[in-house]
Every structure is written in structure tokens, then in C-alpha cells.
Amino acid sequence: MDFSPVAVARRRNGSESVALGTVATARDGYRGTVWLAIFVILLTIPGCAPRYIQGSPGEVQKSMAACADIRIEGQTVPRFMTGRTAFVLDAAQARLTKTSPTLGEIELKEKTPIEFGTATAIDPRGYFLTAAHCLGKKPPYLGFFSKGKLQFEPCRVVWRSAHEQPDLALLYVPFPLKVFAWSPDVPGGAEVLAAGFTMGKAPMARMRYVTGKIRIIEEEPEETPSFSIISHTAPLIFGNSGGPLFDRQGRLVGINVTADGKMEWLKYAVTIHGGTALRPDLAWLREKIAEDQAQLSKP
Description:
By secondary structure, the protein is α+β, with helices and mostly antiparallel strands. It has two domains: 5-23 and 52-69 and 182-284, Beta Barrel (Thrombin, subunit H), CATH 2.40.10.10; 74-180, Thrombin, subunit H (Beta Barrel). 16% of the residues lie in helices and 41% in strands. The strands form five sheets. It has a seven-stranded antiparallel sheet with strand order 12-11-6-9-10-14-13, with helices on one face. The chain has a six-stranded antiparallel β-barrel with strand order 15-16-17-20-19-18. Strand 19 (252-264) and strand 20 form a beta hairpin. The longest helix has 15 residues, at 29-43. The two termini are 38 Å apart. Mean pLDDT is 77; it is low at 1-28, 49-54 and 265-270.
């Protein structure tokens, strides 16, 4: 999850990006400049980064509790999600020890906060989408729950956007998957669910599920690949980048890439009130997978 001060405090408004928490009027320009200068100075001091608040506790608990009553294909949301998502771990931060022909366990190289995210299964032959900013210089390890703990597999980066525009990457692992089917359309105001990994004590990571509604949908037809930008109210947190945004039928709407928030200067905190997902052109995506399959079939 991209939680840089600029990315977190940004939302889409019409055709432009607006940094929330800054003052846009000329009358308040001086006050905004002073606050911005203080903010930048504080960011240079170790341990002085702003806190991130997921809205009011009541709103977040209500959002999470709503998932408990939802059934997809007759299954609870956590059971439906099993095998359809993976934990994305920077390979530079861990060593992999194989425990089976396909999966292994990892040992972290340093006891420091790790960079991680979520990947979403989109093709049963082994393909995932994730947020490009979740990837480091090396291809990441993908983690899957097996017997109550995460087991890892090295993956291959099939495609990654240049300069994270759009903020997406296509990954491959060499075994079959349960996958999401794509929703045929993305109606404004529709109820959606968001899922992604977050850190826990045992196992190392756990899945988190929240509900929300679609706010704004924008098209970027001139980009290559073309994609849609979907703003929604499901409160995302660190680690949810690359995770699925899906409807109550379990159909994939988009891939979450950033949390949307507002800087509250007096609290020196960013209040998270939703997120942004990307939906790539599906014809382009099928073509990319077909090209990769053709390369794999060569002797």
C-alpha cells in the first residue's frame, strides 16, 4: 500500500488530482504554506511521520462486521477468498527454504518493518494482478495459506507498468489457482467489498475484509493500457494494495492501489476514508496472458 504523504492524501476530482488537507484559496494561502513547511520539516525527523487513522472506529467495525453476513457461492467471504489472493513479499527482505516441490517457508533477513502487499488471482493457469508499487527490484515471493500458515513460492513478473502508470503488474506462478471472474460492468453507487493482507502475530499475516460503495468512476482511454479509475468508500490500510475490489457476487471490479485520506493538521494524522482501485482493459489483459502462454509453450 502506497502510504507516502502525497499518495495517501490524494483523491481524484473530475479530471485532476487534489491533495487533501492543503488550502487552495488565496485568502488562506499563507496559512497553508506555513502548515506545509512545518509538515515537511516534521517528516525529516525520525519517528515523526503522521499517524494513519481508518476513519472512526465505529465506521470501520461496522464495515468489517457487514462482511460476516455475506455469502458468495454459499461460502463465507474468508472461505471464498482462500486461494484467490496471495501475500506479496519483497524477495530482497527474505530467504526462501523449500518444504515441498511447490511451496516453501521464508526467513526474514532483518528485523525491520517489511514491505508487503496483496496479489489477486485472475487466471486459473497461475496469473495474478497486483499494484506495481508493491514490487521491489527482484521478483517477489507470493504467500498462500496452507495448514494455517503462509507458504511461499517465487513468482515471475510478466508485465510491470513503467513509472507505475497505471500502478499495476502481472505476475505468474507455475500452478493452478482459484480465480475471480470479472464483473461485466462497474455501476456507480454499487456496494463492494475490499480484501487484503495486514500484519498479525500468528500467522505472520492475516486477511482483512471491509465493505463500501463505489463513488466515482473515471476512464483513461488514452493510456496504454487503457484503464478505469474507481474511487470507493471501503477503508483500506497498509498491505491492501494489489488486493481485490469485488461485488457481492464475488466478481472482480478492480485492483486496489491506494488509500484515500485527508490530512488533519491539528491531529497530525491522515484519516483514511476509502480507496482507489484500477480496472485494466480486459482485452489487453487477455492478450498479455496469451503472449506469455505462447512463450511458455516454446521448447
